[in-house]
Amino acid sequence: MTARAVDGATRGLSPGQRPEGAAEAPPNGGRLDRSERPDRTDPADRSDRADADLLLAASVLLADAALTAKQAGAELTGALCSWRVGLEALRRPGWALGTAISCARALTSPSGLGFGANGGPVGELARMAGSVTYRRPAAVAMAVDAFALRIRAIAVDHPNLDSPLAKRLTDAMVAGRRIEALRAMYALVERLGVTRALTTVSPVIMELFALLGLLDENPVNDGFPWVTLAGGVPTTDPFLGLPSAVLKCLNPGPGRAERVEADSILAKVLATSANDIVSYVNDIGTLGNHGLVLLRRVECADGAVRYVLLLPGTSFGLLSNSTPQDLVGAFDGLLHTDTTYTRAARKLLLRAGVPTGSEVMFVGHSLGGMTAMNLAADVELSSRYRVTHVIAVGSPIDGKRPADHTTRVISLVNNHDVIPMLDGRGPASPNEIPDSWVELAWLDESYDYPLSHAPQAYSDTLRGSMAHHRDRVNELIGAYDGRIVGNQPYMLRDK
After folding, report:
1. Distance from the first to the final alpha carbon of the chain
2. For the chain, what percent of residues have pLDDT higher than 70?
3. 0.85 cut: is pTM over it?
C-alpha cells in the first residue's frame, strides 16, 4: 500500500501557515513548517495551491464578517428591546420613535443587516420567523459564501470534489436547493456506491451539514453551522438541533470494568507486542470493539514501571449496546469528557491498582482516541497519575485539551477518513491546533470509508510508505521501551 503526506502534517492550517516541503515530521515534535511541504514542481500545481490559499484566506475574512454581522444584529436587537429605551421614550417620544425606526431599518433592510434580528426572546422569535419565511440575514449570506470558498479550496487536494456529480451536489447545497441536492446525492451513490460516495464528499462533510442548517426552514438547528463557522465543536445535531444533553440522557451508565482472560487469538498477538505504534494499533484491532480494552505494565529501560492503556473504537452494529463502545457513546464522547467510557476506564485503573503518581500513556482508535483525550482532560485523574502521552488514531480530538499542559498529544489522521473531521476541523478548516501537538496526516490507497478508518489501514500505512511517521512516533514514546511484564484485558460495561 502506498501513501503520500498532504498539508505537511496537518489537516487544516490558517492562511500563510500551510507547510510546503517533505513529509518528515520536524525534530521538535511540532507540525511541519512551510519548508517541509512536499515539493510541487508543476507550475500549474503551484498555481492551484496559491489559489487554494487565497480562497481559504477569503473564507476566513468572510467568516469573521458573518460572525460580526450576527453579533451586531444581536446588539441592535438588545438595544431596541431594552427597558432603558422604553423609559427614555416616556421622556423623549420623538427621539425614541426615530431611534426605533433607524434600528428597525438597519435590522431589516437588504442594504443593512437584512433581517438580522437575533438574541433575547424578541430577537429569537424574529429570527425564527425570518428563517421560516426565508428572510435571510446578511450574516447568513456571508457565512454561506465562506463555506463555499472552503469547499472550493479543499477541491485542490481532493479533485474528486470537482467531478460533475460531486460538484452538482456541492453547488446545490450552496444554493440551498435541497431537492436538487438529494437528486445529486442519489446520482452519486448510484454511480459510485454508498461508501465511495461518502468518501468523495467526506472532506467537506461538516461544511455541507452547516449549509443544510443555515439554509433550511428549521430555526432550531442554526447553532450547528455558526459553531462550525467559528471553528468550534458543535453541541447540537445538524438536522433537528437536538442538544448534547439528550445524549447524556441516552448514555447515563456509571461504567464498570471486569478482568477477563485473553482468548487464543488475542494472546498470540500480545505475545509479539512491543512499544511501537504499529504494534499498538494492531493490538487495538485485535481487541475489537465489543467492550474489551487492555492495560499493559512495562518495566522500562530506565528502571521505572509505566502503564499503557489501549482503547478501541466504536461498534457500528447497534445504536446502543451494553458496552461504552456504541454509537451513542461515540457522539457522547465527541461532545463531553465525562462519559460512560471514561468512567469505566477510571474504575479500571483503580481496580488494577495502578499506583498513584505512575506514568501512563493512553492509546486509542476512533472513539478510543476521544476517550483517551477525555481521560487526559480529567483534572482528578491527571492529579492522581502523570499522563505522559495521548496517541489518537483516526479520532476527532481537536476541540479537546489535556488537563496537564506537559501531556504530549499525537494525532494520526488518514485524510480519506471521515471520522477525524467530525470535530469541525476538516481539511478545509482554517483553524489551528496547539503548537505542542504532533499531528501526522496522509492520503493512502484505502480510499473508501470505512476501510480508510480501520485500524489495519492505519497500521499498514505506518508500516509501509509512512514509516517515517512510525519512526517519529516511536521516538516520542521511547520512554516506554522495555520489558512487558503484564497484559491484562478488561471488559467494560455501561452498568
Report:
1. 42
2. 88
3. no
